[in-house]
User: What shape does this take?
Amino acid sequence: MAARLWQRLAFSRFPNSPKCTIRAMATASTDKNLVEVEKVGSVLLIGINRPENRNAINPATAKVLYSAFKEFENDSDCHVAVLHGKGGCFCAGWDLKELSTVDKQDPRSMMVDEPLKTEYGFIGPSRMAFSKPVIAAVSGYAVAGGLELALMCDLRVVEENAIMGVFCRRFGVPLLDGGTVRLPQLIGLSRALDLILTGRPVGAKEALEMGLANRVVSTGTALGSAILLANSLVKFPQECMNADRRSAYYSCYEAKSVQDALQHEYIDGVKVLTKESIPGAKTFADGIGRHGSFNLNVKSNL
Assistant: This one.
């Protein structure tokens, strides 16, 4: 209920956005809507909808979740995605009930191809390289594969009573969806190993201190706060913002040297100058000309 109120508040802050269009995606094997997708203006909300299982991901849900993110990538009218869990929990990881039914002698039924062959992971979109920002609205538990889904996102808005951690450590399930790759990049190797080796729970306050969380908000408000944050990103010139985003990811994961990273930043970024920077500079100059000064003290929505 609180999350819905925050959604209405977030939407009311942007009166030009068109009315929500809600589409529920389901698999052929069940009538249940495993993932709910809702488009609000230029923001796509993607909600995991297995609250009775703390939004744990089974193979059917992984497929639908992957399809939802493919839709986001292919929709030029969607500039930011917000990933969240329905029913007060982000995601408890891979569905261990499903795992327990796998025959030890023939585990192929649950396997996926290796990353060099496909971008589809065990929990669906975890191997995807997005061209646009994705924000995680974390409530309740974001553990094991759920933590990996949160790490997949650019930013994490975390409720004050949320719990994050590598809980799969307790059950002999390794991190197979980018956890050991992304976590050290986000918070450093020492802190990442602390979480990876011990599997201990991490509260919101500590997550913020170590850089795992970007914002900590009141319980029940992560989704609304993430929507506000998403809409603040939508207002920026998109090519410029995404060029800087690409450069940051390239520097962290692909660059062979500092010079290589600087070269990529320049080659990719300079293309934006004639498209957005020069028109933007003209608008800036016109503003100074009209008013004699230009106010740079822009307050954030969050």
Remarks:
- Strands lie at 21-26, 33-40, 43-48, 80-85, 134-138, 141-143, 155-159, 163-165, 202-203, 215-217.
